[in-house]
Amino acid sequence: MQVEMTVNGERVRGDVEPRTLLVHHLREGLGLTGTNVGCDTSSCGACTVHLDGRSVKSCTVLAVQAEGAEITTIEGLASNGSLHPMQEAFRQNHGLQCGFCTPGMVMAAVSLLEEHPSPTEDEVRHGLEGNLCRCTGYHNIVRSVLAAAETGGAS
Ligand code: FES
Ligand code: FES
């Protein structure tokens, strides 16, 4: 069946099976491979994107449920050749670890600051609980989000 949505500002149509997950449509249908699949239990957050401005795990959404929606993926954050402030904060504070968890972590962090522009460290840790990194202590990731909040937040 046909599904149409706006992805990173561009209207796109695609043919999907009814059971196709949004994450697979983004990766395989649209070639946006920055959104990753890290688990099959909706627990890792590697697949996090923004759907109509809210952060969602795209492995828990059917592509057809996103009909008519506005989707932003990690590929859509930078603009005019400049990193998004959150990407810049991750770069400067060594929050960027592997390419697998980082895109989802950045997308979740942007949403977090949209909802809580000046979070405490605890609020950042709580806000990123749905995003797992198997190899770090999260310290630099939390530092990055706090730094982004200080320099103007999510946008
Ligand atoms: S792939 Fe979606 S939460 Fe892990
Ligand atoms: S899973 Fe990506 S740095 Fe740990």
TrEMBL record:
Q: Does the keyword Transit peptide apply?
A: no
Pathway the protein acts in: Alkaloid degradation; nicotine degradation
Tell me which InterPro entries the record gives: 2Fe-2S-bd (IPR002888), 2Fe-2S-bd_dom_sf (IPR036884), 2Fe-2S_ferredoxin-like_sf (IPR036010), 2Fe-2S_ferredoxin-type (IPR001041), Beta-grasp_dom_sf (IPR012675), Diverse_Oxidoreductases (IPR051452)
* Classification via SUPFAM superfamilies: 2Fe-2S ferredoxin-like, CO dehydrogenase ISP C-domain like
All copies of the 2Fe-2S ferredoxin-type domain together span 1-77
Keyword vocabulary terms for this entry: 2Fe-2S, Iron, Iron-sulfur, Metal-binding, Oxidoreductase
Q: Which GO terms describe its molecular function?
A: 2 iron, 2 sulfur cluster binding; metal ion binding; oxidoreductase activity
For whether the record's keyword set contains Cell inner membrane, the answer is no
What is the name of this protein?
A: 2Fe-2S iron-sulfur cluster binding domain-containing protein
| UniProt source species | Actinomarinicola tropica
